[in-house]
Specification:
Layout: E1 5-10, H1 23-35, E2 40-45, H2 52-59, E3 64-67, H3 83-98, E4 100-103, E5 107-109, E6 121-130, E7 133-147, H4 152-164, H5 171-183, E8 189-191, H6 193-196, H7 203-210, E9 221-223, H8 226-233, H9 238-243, H10 247-256
Parallel strand pairs: 1-2, 1-4, 2-3, 6-8
Antiparallel strand pairs: 4-7, 5-9, 6-7
């Protein structure tokens, strides 16, 4: 049984990947607390931001803030091209050790994850419009990982990093787990696109999240693709949220009450 623990990572480099901890991050983690009130929520960091919203996570008892002892990982750090790749392997190490649910901090929770906890390991499908082709299967996105302690799939994936790490942006984090799911289908449960990544980083997805009030009744969560939408998301202060009628704003209004 997968334990009721939610894990986040932030602050793995001193400049925070040039993205400060913002109000929308705070609301995303608040959404996890409100939709999963019985869960333990831990946010792990190495560099702590001097930031009111980050501090408020602790003062409002939304989650535990835990300082990582080091950033040493199972692959040679000199090979790591992006800080995000360091996050990719650290999240696997965390859920392998403790079990539970890993969430990227650009994820809004919509309903509890309880119904998925009987599986051994869970990921969700990522699709997008690429070129002229719509709904292309990109892979299994690691922005959400749900795992029992010491799961076989997690162990296989971690070992794969040692021999198969590539500098390509999403090879090890999205493309490779899809390949592994074909090799070890009994070790992983794959959720449909709608569960975690209903709207992608493409223009249709952006429009559905930030301009329309879209149907999210079949979603456990909504991934906001911060690496594509960060500057748009930083506009989401209280005033902006309440004057807008779109999917993201309307979710945030619920959690601000």
């Amino acid at each position: 049984m997968i334990p009721k623990i939610i894990h986040y990572l932030f602050g793995l480099d001193s400049i925070f990947c040039n993205k400060s901890f913002d109000y929308f991050h705070y609301l995303n983690i608040l959404s996890a607390r409100k939709t999963n009130p019985e869960y333990t929520i831990n946010l792990y960091y190495y560099y702590r931001p001097n930031n009111t919203w980050f501090d408020k996570l602790e003062t409002d008892s939304i989650c535990n803030l835990i300082k990582l002892d080091s950033l040493d990982v199972v692959i040679n750090r000199d090979k790591i091209v992006y800080t995000e790749h360091l996050s990719d392997i650290l999240r696997l190490i965390l859920i392998n050790k403790y079990g539970g649910i890993y969430l990227d901090i650009d994820t809004i929770c919509i309903k509890t994850f309880d119904s998925l906890l009987h599986h051994k390991f869970v990921m969700g499908i990522e699709k997008a419009k690429i070129g002229e082709d719509s709904n292309v299967l990109v892979g299994l996105c690691n922005a959400i990982l749900i795992s029992e302690i010491n799961s076989d799939f997690t162990n296989i994936w971690i070992e794969d990093y040692k021999v198969n790490y590539q500098s390509d942006w999403n090879y090890n984090s999205v493309k490779r787990p899809l390949q592994l799911s074909y090799e070890y289908p009994s070790l992983i449960h794959v959720e449909p696109q709608s569960s975690f990544f209903k709207y992608s980083w493409d223009e249709h997805g952006k429009n559905s999240m930030f301009n329309k009030n879209s149907d999210i009744s079949d979603c456990y969560s909504l991934h906001l693709w911060e690496h594509k939408n960060y500057f748009n998301l930083t506009k989401y202060n209280k005033e902006y949220i309440f004057k807008n009628n779109c999917t993201v704003s309307n979710l945030y209004k619920i959690y601000m009450k």
